[in-house]
Fold this protein.
Amino acid sequence: MAKQKTNIGKRKVAFLLHAPGAKHVAVSGDFNKWSTDTHAMKKDENGVWHRNAMLPAGRNEYRFLVDGQWWSDPKNDQVCWNSFGTQNNIFDVHVHGQAGRSRRRKATL
């Protein structure tokens, strides 16, 4: 399990995506203003892409950008429609003093 570092109002979350054939993967969402460059992921020897990100408390929407194509998180069935007619994944972050706990975000294809 990834270590979780808490800043005031934020929590460190580990994103994982199994995509062994991909050449470039990034995670984009509300937490980085949908930047496709800020949170590039690194691939391990098993074809799993990794990236930690500090997410603010509350609801966060995100998707993976894999070789220029938007991918939903196949391990997260929490989704909402976006303005492009596709779906974003949702991840709720809870920090100290809030009900519930954050969990590690793990995606595998």
About this structure: Residues 6-108 form a domain with the Immunoglobulin-like fold (CATH 2.60.40.10).
